[in-house]
Amino acid sequence: MLALTNDARSEKAAIEAEKAEITRIGASLAEQITTLDKTSAEAVDGYNAKVGARDKRIDDYQDRVTAFNLKAESINAAKEAYAKACDQRRYDERDLNDIKRKK
Asked: How far is Cα of residue 44 from the mean position of the Cα atoms in its chain?
């Protein structure tokens, strides 16, 4: 369970970094549009390619967030099930020894 939680934290950090990068790219594109030579087809095509690449990153980001949310829900459900099963249960060292013997 701890490994899943740590993996989820790592994934969340990566998602947040990607969001920051997408935001940075968006700000850069907003800045570039102000100086774009709109009379040059080559310049407009280059800008549009950058916008398309950013839009693709946004789509990938949204897919990644959706997958992360499903994973997080699964982890939370497992934690809740564990807490419910172990709630009001005394710790007995013999239980731990039984588990160790089964391994």
From this structure: 33
